[in-house]
Amino acid sequence: RDGYGLEAHRLDSLYSKSKRHQWNAELDVDWRAFDPEADVLDRRPDFLSRLHSVQELSTSEQRSLFKSVHLFLMSQILHGEQAALMVCGQLVNLVPDIEGKFAAAVQVMDEARHVEVFARYLQRHGRRYPIDPDLQAIVQALLAEPDWEVKCVGMQIILESVALSFFRLGDQLALEPVFRQFIGRVHED
């Protein structure tokens, strides 16, 4: 070790910030505001909306198509968040220093909250898609990886970067009232 303590300082800061920004998916989201008829996301920027074959569909068919696409994406995010929960749980045990264990532990709580909020949301829609086989292969490889550093990098680079992109986009394009309430909080986590 280099003795500078920079890594530990950053991890302490992350741990401290995370403790201050906890929220409760059950109590801090007004689930009564759920609108099953609303588009989840604004579909205008979606490339599908520019396809002639989609434009020829009726309004109700387009709504159904986009809802299916958005619920499929959210299902994959749910599966990814569940994978991140399991990987972070492993990291609590595998990371050698206490600061790393604390950082992994607060991320376990964040991931658990994300699993809860996406599962509740998909339950409101009455639809959850199974995990995509490619995502499942990535998840299985990360869970089986014995090296904690490789596991951590794989999770942060692969799972978390995809999720972060979706959260950022969701925060910008959210239309359905309940989704609009929680996606910014998930993004902030």
Give a verbal description of the structure:
The structure is a single chain. Helices cover about 70% and strands about 0% of the residues. The protein is built from 7 helices and no strands. Helix 3 runs antiparallel to helix 4 (about 100-125) and helix 3 runs antiparallel to helix 6. It is globular, with a radius of gyration of 18 Å.
Low-confidence stretches: 1-6
**What is the rounded distance between the termini?**
29 Å
The fraction of residues assigned to DSSP E strands is under 5%
Mean pLDDT: 90
Main sheet makeup? none
- How many strand segments? 0
**Helix count?**
7
The general outline is: globular
The topology string of helices and strands comes to HHHHHHH
Q: How much is the radius of gyration in Å?
A: 18 Å
Helix content: over 70%
Which structural class best describes the helix and strand composition? mainly alpha
Which key terms come to mind for this protein?
single chain; 189 residues; 7 helices; globular; disordered N terminus
Give a topology summary:
Blueprint: H1 6-20, H2 52-55, H3 59-94, H4 98-125, H5 133-144, H6 148-173, H7 177-188
Helix pairs in contact: 1-4, 3-4, 3-5, 3-6, 4-7, 6-7
Short description:
This protein is mainly α and 189 residues long.
